[in-house]
Design a protein that fits this description.
about 180 residues; mainly alpha
C-alpha cells in the first residue's frame, strides 16, 4: 500500500532503495547529474583561493599598524576566520563527492584565483583584499553558472559563500580612504 502511494506520486521507491545500496559512493547517488570530476576540480581551485585569502588576511591582520587601525585589524581577522570556514566547507564537499581536497602548499598560489599580497601600507592591503574579494565573487558566479541545477548542494554552498564574499567586498570598499 505504502509503495503504491509513492508510485502514484511518480516515485519508484523500489528503484530508489536499490540505488541506495551502493554504499561505496557515500553521498553521491545515481541521480547525481553533474560531472563529478569537473566539480571536484573547480572546488579544489576554490579551496586554494580560500586558503590563500586566509593567509593574506592573516598577514594583513598581524602587520597592519598605525593610528586608528584597530577596526581595520579586527575586520581583517574576522574575514580570515570566515575564509577559513569557507575552505572547510569546500573541503568537506569535495570529500562528500568522493574527491580529495588539495591542501598542497607547493601549488597553492598557482591554483588560486586570487593573489597573495605582502603590502605594508594599510590602504594597499585594503585594495588588495577588495580585488581578491571581487575575484572570488566572479569565480563563484562562474562556478554556479557552470554547475547549474545539476548539483544543487554544491550550488547552494557556493551561493552562500559568494554572499559572504560580497559582504567582504562591501566592507573593504567602506574602508578605502
Amino acid at each position: 500500500m505504502e509503495e503504491t502511494k509513492h508510485l502514484a506520486h511518480g516515485f519508484d521507491v523500489a528503484a530508489i532503495r536499490r540505488a541506495a545500496a551502493n554504499l561505496d559512493d557515500g553521498a553521491v547517488t545515481e541521480g547525481y547529474q553533474a560531472d563529478r570530476e569537473a566539480v571536484i576540480a573547480m572546488l579544489n581551485d576554490a579551496l586554494a583561493t580560500e586558503l590563500l585569502c586566509v593567509l593574506r588576511y592573516k598577514r594583513h591582520y598581524y602587520t597592519v599598524s598605525g593610528p586608528n587601525t584597530g577596526h581595520i585589524k579586527a575586520e581583517f581577522l574576522e574575514h580570515a576566520q570566515q575564509e577559513q570556514d569557507h575552505a572547510d566547507r569546500i573541503a568537506e564537499r569535495i570529500v562528500q563527492l568522493n574527491g580529495s581536497p588539495n591542501f598542497n602548499p607547493a601549488t597553492l598560489t598557482a591554483r588560486s584565483h586570487a593573489e597573495y599580497d605582502d603590502s605594508d601600507d594599510v590602504q594597499a592591503m585594503i585594495r588588495a583584499d577588495l580585488i581578491a574579494e571581487r575575484v572570488a565573487i566572479e569565480s563563484y558566479r562562474q562556478m554556479i553558472q557552470a554547475i547549474g541545477d545539476r548539483d544543487p548542494t554544491t550550488t547552494k554552498m557556493l551561493t552562500d559563500i559568494m554572499a559572504v564574499e560580497e559582504e567582504h567586498a562591501d566592507d573593504m570598499r567602506d574602508l578605502l580612504a
